[in-house]
Amino acid sequence: MTTPNLLNETHDPKLTSWVSSANIEHSDFPIQNLPFASFKRKGSSEEFRVGVAIGEQIVDLKALHALGLFTDDAQDALAACCKAQLNDFMAMGKRYWSALRLALSQALAQGSSMQADITSCLVAQSDVEYALPCQIGDYTDFYTSIHHATSVGSKFRPDNPLLPNYKWVPIGYHGRASSIEVSGRDFKRPKGQTKAPTATEPSFGPCKRLDYELEVGIFIGKGNDLGAPISIDDADDHVFGVCLFNDWSARDIQGWEYQPLGPFLSKSFASTISPWIVTSEALAPFREQWTREASDPQPLPYLESSHNRALGALNMQLQVLLETAAMRDAKQAPVQLSQSNFKDSYWTIAQMVAHHTVNGCNLRAGDMFGSGTQSGPNPEEAGSLLELSNAGAEPITLPNGETRTFLVDGDCVIMKAWCQKPGAVRIGFGEVNATVLAAD
Amino acid sequence: MTTPNLLNETHDPKLTSWVSSANIEHSDFPIQNLPFASFKRKGSSEEFRVGVAIGEQIVDLKALHALGLFTDDAQDALAACCKAQLNDFMAMGKRYWSALRLALSQALAQGSSMQADITSCLVAQSDVEYALPCQIGDYTDFYTSIHHATSVGSKFRPDNPLLPNYKWVPIGYHGRASSIEVSGRDFKRPKGQTKAPTATEPSFGPCKRLDYELEVGIFIGKGNDLGAPISIDDADDHVFGVCLFNDWSARDIQGWEYQPLGPFLSKSFASTISPWIVTSEALAPFREQWTREASDPQPLPYLESSHNRALGALNMQLQVLLETAAMRDAKQAPVQLSQSNFKDSYWTIAQMVAHHTVNGCNLRAGDMFGSGTQSGPNPEEAGSLLELSNAGAEPITLPNGETRTFLVDGDCVIMKAWCQKPGAVRIGFGEVNATVLAAD
């Protein structure tokens, strides 16, 4: 078996752009990235529209379409992007995604004859606000980090932290789509029922154990019909791209409500995604071999493929930062709470797609998966405060002397991500941030 | 405290319609009902559009709007109904729902001067096919029958069937919206991972314990903003109406997958709703006092109101019937498996709305709640085969000699519902049906 080559001229590390800010080292948005978002000028009465990031600029795709510079599939793809959201374009499938990426890459490359025309379609990222990049019909949250599952499980079942199904089933559950918002939308601390272990009755009030969860958001492009599963070999063709995702969690509400049907109000008060969807094609250079330890069960056939073995893992570095109100007042930079890598996930994106649809469930363009909290193998790689503070028993101390078990009002949680490896140009995901406001 | 009078002239039991089939005793759709659906002529290239049932006919609301017979709020409401689905109308709120109901009631009443004009807008129900009445943004499944929860719980925990949170929390979980279809859409038996209790490893194959769940579907009309809970006293204003709902369940897949995050693929292969949404206003005569036994915990304040006490329960009779392939071949009528009543629910619709939003979660027009399986206090009132067959241990025998523990291929499950009481005209919900097809 040979590893399929997913790379093409758009990944060429030698490519640079006539948009000079795209060529700065450590730019999140070099010409090899070209992620999609929905944007408008801040505070304007403009309609939200779809754009592609290049350096510190955005190419307004509606304006670009109007210029009529592109042809064939690329121009058809642009036509589908003349909307407030990406769903129509996402539904077109890989052929059109690739055609538009190639056309954009050529048009934005150093020396392009289109530079003068396209310059008129650029909007500075510093001038815009974002909306959700697509309508999310259904959101499913997976639980793919075995390190997170083990760590959380050990707090409840020290002798048997992992449930017997974990190594066989890519565990997931349906999440709430309506409360997913884009980065920057602050939210009020939720209220709800909680019951302290020693209390005889529950009480009602603001959540006392508010947490973040560091997740990867995965967007479905082309869907499938009800009753027609997507095989693991076809799964890649259905995945449009990836973003950052903070699945805020009310741990005390969760503890009281979640038996027997799973988390509900502990999750549905707010979830926040980064504005930019980095496409599957942009991520191709960072795919890696996926392995399953010989001592672990090997996947059932519907979750197994040579392609998934060869390229199923995604080397995507994840980072959580915290900015407290005190730090903001003192103009101190946010501090890092943890880093982890999505390649340590126990299940791959293709396995999530194949599992989700194996019962016949239909996915639709714009549906989102959460990866589940991505904690790495080491304790300092934990993707939630629940883990970092040992369920609140061991407060963490911040550089300015503040301590945290869970989040306090005014805390802003910031997540960042990037992919880098020798021989490829680093690409970034921008960031997702939101601040906890006091409960009413 | 006096019980608020929710009745008006549209509920008058003396009203009859010039559509004569609406006046037949036991018609599901007398003039006091006036439910909404999305329909088109069977097999035609027409677009789906919104209609209101009257007897055996449907009033095509787009055609009615074009006539310009109505005025003010009622005509504005009709304008919002000139779509394939009801979401825009649902979002308008009670004032417009009521205005349209009153105008339709007057226009369809015996002696109306509009009879000749509106006759041109009628389409026979026997000639049409249905689509989902609205786009369901999010679907939440509750678990409001304490009889079902106790019965199911007793199979796993004989000494402690009800979990400690049940009497405090209206338990619910996020469901899959994409796989909800309208009555008549048959579906393939799902495949998935299961593990027999005695097996050391899971296996993959068609579900062996396929079940139905008898539920009430509840549609949100006017939504709420994220962070702005709906109080229990305001809840009624946000509920557009009710339908029948079969939440098909793969019990063996569920048993293996559901820990710790709840049901997932065991539910998302198919869910089926009846085409007609019976409005909250049509249901007003059948609302009843809601009580909580003194020996049980009384609701926390956010789930308590005098209005909910006075009128929170809904006297809605529910019925499940089965038609096997053999019965169909022999032209035998479907047989009843059970009957139960939604008034036996432990939690009310208003409590579901208040609970769902108390954490700030936003509901949107068209969102649907499932009530959870509605089993009554007596064993023969069980709303699933899991209960009727004692988890498969005690097969039930059908009148033609066939037996069932769970569903076999070719089984058609039919659910019906109606409201009736002395002094009011009976209204019905039509039916929801679908047939289990063999797995691929």
UniProtKB/TrEMBL annotation, chains A, B:
Binding site for substrate: Y143, R157, Q254, Y258, T373
The EC number(s) this enzyme carries: 3.7.1.2
InterPro entries membership: Fumarylacetoacetase, Fumarylacetoacetase-like_C, Fumarylacetoacetase_C_sf, Fumarylacetoacetase_N, Fumarylacetoacetase_N_sf
Binding site for Mg(2+): D247, K267, S271
Organism domain of life: Bacteria
Catalytic residues as annotated in Swiss-Prot or TrEMBL: H148
Record domain Fumarylacetoacetase N-terminal: where: 32-133
UniProt-recorded name of the protein: fumarylacetoacetase
Organism annotation: Colwellia chukchiensis
Lineage, broadest ranks: Bacteria, Pseudomonadati, Pseudomonadota, Gammaproteobacteria, Alteromonadales
